[in-house]
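ok trying this again, last paste got cut off
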Amino acid sequence: MKKIGFLSFGHWTPSPHSQTRSAADALLQSIDLAVAAEELGADGAYFRVHHFARQLASPFPLLAAIGARTSRIEIGTGVIDMRYENPLYMAEDAGAADLIAGGRLQLGISRGSPEQVVDGFRYFGYEPADGDHAALARDHTATFLDVIEGRGFAEPNPRPMFPNPPGLLGIEPHSPGLRDRIWWGAGSRATAEWTATQGLNLMSSTLLTEDTGVPFHQLQAEQIQRFRDAWKAAGHEREARVSVSRSIFPIVSDLDRQLFLRETASRDQVGHLDGGLARFGRSYAGEPDALVASLAEDEAIAAADTLLLTVPNQLGVDYNAHVIESVLTHVAPGLGWR
């Protein structure tokens, strides 16, 4: 059994070929797709966060709205770039959204991915010491993780406007249990091991920022195993969670065939990212029986407890709900995921 959700990048473009032509379309359709996914029996609705782009950028209003419209589905991000975040303000937003959702937030955070602008976080007021982008993200993360625990750290005003509880004050609203539902988007094996030492769940995408010559799914499976080994060595009491993302398109209609037949020949790719080699995973498209056979050989999916289906959101809510339903009904049972 696996948790199966979707991951949307929330693209929008004012093109007659897009079903998502404005920021309002992207946001409102994201809510509608989450509602549809819950009705179909999916387990998660996750959203990518990009700044300075025609994509979803400010996740917490969206997550709160979905939380108010749904009752069961997990709601998350994949991922929030922590270089841009004020960790205390983010803790307030996250706590509020999680309380609205009844404790269903699953927040993926990380150093982020290549940006639309040069060093965009500087426009948000953040300057990394010695130009170390990763350290900036991890410093913000450490503060965020600390304050969402709910402890008091701020000295109260001796003459406050409203009465204070005794002792130091912490971030409000506080949502108990949120700390255990934070994930780190890791792009390498070493980062996955660091993720485990921090007590964060592992979120692994369709690319890795390294290449050892083995197929993507095997390299990702090694990453997951190293994470689990490091988690065990760290002595954490709870069980870790691991998600992987995949583009999976069952061909069960003429429209599916028209849109994704060419993806049946998809293969791994190796390219350059941020000055180094990166390995990109393939897409999966085909008749359901063929998909079941191909996916059964994906070692990383087998090692993960959560699968996020990357959806082409500009094709509209109805078509993306169809893709999710096709995976749940035509593919998942054959692999023992349902």
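PB: full thing came through this time. The chain has ten helices and 13 strands.
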